[in-house]
UniProtKB/TrEMBL annotation:
Stretches assigned to the Glucosamine/galactosamine-6-phosphate isomerase domain: 6-230
Superkingdom of origin organism: Bacteria
Signal peptide residues on this chain, from the entry's feature table: none
Source species of the chain: Filimonas effusa
Name of the featured protein: Glucosamine-6-phosphate deaminase
Gene: nagB
């Protein structure tokens, strides 16, 4: 889906999410959303907040699972994805606090494995992810699944690529302050979602969007593994879709 700009595309994604939330509400069921961070979903979350405030869209039945978090990082650090989600979405809507799940960047290293396994279990227990929202890294990562991530990977601790640390360094004072590790849902975790929407804006994303959508299916471009899913949509602005 190629739109004139990120704003129009984000509004269309917000509509899809709102429809799903309302459908599930009518069925008396929870709506399980997989959520992303980074700059790409900012307009989407702003639109969802607007729909909550102006159109009465309720998040009471929403259960959310975030894709990833730096490790280690304080939950309230400026760069933490925990903080990002609260300030861009959760603090402004009526989602129940107990329904929010974000990988914990503060736990002790010897507990990370158990934390990741428990995260997977919580997703299963919630009935699986109904809709997974994704951004895409310049190197093709989804969540923090860097190139080389296995198709069968689950939520785990991962070493960030230098290119990712460099790309994300604008959020920190220097690149050396960007954590070297992160906790991320795996490729398998993502592919288990019933529906997937990937967002990409701007000319810098054009080459990787082309590889992901039209190139070979390879673990070297993790987003290309999405081609194996039967309900995945890419939402782009004209610049990000210009090499398709
Ligand atoms: C970040 C995040 C991803 C995000 C991607 C693109 O490092 N871990 O979840 O999708 O890189 O970020 P942005 O949306 O800022 O371009």
């Amino acid at each position: 889906h190629i739109y004139e700009g990120a704003k129009e595309a984000s509004a269309a994604i917000a509509k899809t999410i709102a429809t799903l939330i309302r459908e599930k509400q009518q069925q008396g069921k929870p709506c399980v959303l997989g959520l992303a961070t980074g700059s790409s979903p900012r307009l989407l979350y702003a639109e969802l907040v607007r729909m909550h405030k102006e159109e009465g869209l309720s998040f009471q039945n929403v259960i959310s699972f975030n894709l990833d978090e730096y490790y280690p990082i304080d939950a309230d650090a400026l760069q933490s994805y925990n903080r990002f989600m609260h300030s861009n979405l959760f603090d402004h809507v009526d989602i129940r606090r107990e329904n929010i799940h974000i990988p914990d960047g503060t736990i002790a290293k010897d507990q990370v494995k158990a934390h990741c396994a428990a995260y997977e279990e919580k997703i299963e227990k919630a009935g699986g992810i109904d809709l997974q929202i994704l951004g895409i890294g310049n190197n093709g990562h989804i969540g923090f699944n860097e190139p080389g991530s296995s198709l069968f990977s689950k939520t785990r601790l991962i070493t960030l690529d230098n290119s990712t640390r460099l790309a994300n360094s604008f959020e920190f004072q220097t690149v050396s302050q960007v954590p070297r590790l992160a906790i991320t849902m795996g490729i398998q975790t993502i592919l288990k979602a019933k529906k997937i929407i990937l967002m990409a804006w701007g000319p810098l994303k054009a080459p990787v969007v082309q590889l992901a959508a039209e190139g070979a299916v390879t673990e070297q471009i993790p987003a290309s593994l999405l081609q194996q899913h039967d309900d995945v949509s890419f939402f782009m602005d004209t610049a990000a879709g210009s090499e398709l």
